[in-house]
Amino acid sequence: MSAPPMPTGPARSSKQRKPPPRRPPPKPPKPSRSARHPAVTIGSGIFTFLLFVFVGVGLAGWYGQRAFTEPGPLTTEKVVNIPRGAGVRDMAEILEREGVVQSWVLFVAGQKIARPDASLKAGEYVFKPGQSVASVIDTIASGKVVLHQVTIPEGLTSQQVVKRLMDNDLLTGTPAVPQEGTLLPETYRIHRGMTRDAVLQEMADAQKKLLATIWAKRAPDVPLKSPQELVTLASIVEKETGQADERPKVAAVFVNRLTKKMRLQSDPTIIYGIVGGRGSLGRPISRTDIATATAYNTYAIDGLPPGPICNPGKDALMAAANPPKTKDLFFVADGTGGHAFAETLADHNKNVARWRAIEQGAAPAQSGQPPAAPAVTPPAATPPAASGR
Q1: 268 alpha-carbon distance from chain centroid
Q2: What EC number(s) does the entry state (predicted)?
Q3: 130-165 burial by CB neighbour count: b if 16+ within 10 A, else e?
Q4: How confident is the model over 255-283, as a mean pLDDT?
Q5: Model pTM score
């Protein structure tokens, strides 16, 4: 048996070699930025944009709030008129033009954002120095407009009252002339743009309220049947004297005459019967005027005329409702702006003679007044005139 063939290669060591240590597999390369998922890129962009928007809005809000509440540019108190029909933009531009706010944009934005429920009202407003936009908006929303005064003197006819209101350019509208004697002469508070009808209504309401109070407290023996008759008598008293302390005395004369069924014979009733609500005759009363019968001429009619001859004031109404107890039946001018009163015709004639002497001694050019009407001798069937004019 033959021996196995010997290996032809190099001889192996008796010790076997260890295999070299394995190297860990290489880590996969990190993905580059360019390899990000598109959704991540979009999301990141949106977040960045929103962050900038949030910061921008916050800064704008902070700045807007600061500008909205910081002192304004006005250095002195100023009255500004916001006309009727003006919108928020119109108001803002007016306020900027008048120097009340720095920018109309800030006013509009502030009203829309901070005061969306504010109802801005037209009218005249007073703005203080340094008033902020927020305060300006609150002022206009409050409706506390500037108030003015209009004074209606006692003794004007309703037509004359309307004319006085028409001459006031703060008021608006063309009203109808109210019924004579339904307005209370007084000082009233008005605001620019207020209608004349509203003023007349306020005057009528005031007269109605006052008349009800005075009528309820009238003297029980006053020969007047209704509040309307009280106003009529008071209107005659009002036109006969401009002195407050004489109104009760004049009222007493006419009440005494009414009680005795004597004609009132009041000169102002002659004038009203001729010119009506115009109020002024423009010349002295003549004998023809006295003799000409009208519905209001108390030289020609018995008792009171059919209605008032003017709008009497509170004092005249009170005097007519509660006249003092006297026996006077006559009065005539005394040359001092007042009147001389008398119980008898003899005393009255003396007072008239005294007044005529004063008239003759004072030329019209000196007094600045037209000459008084000549003395009138009433018909035999007619009682002597109360005023002797």
Answers
A1: 33
A2: 4.2.2.29
A3: ebbbbbbbebbeeeebeeeebebebbbbbbbbbeeb
A4: 94
A5: 0.74
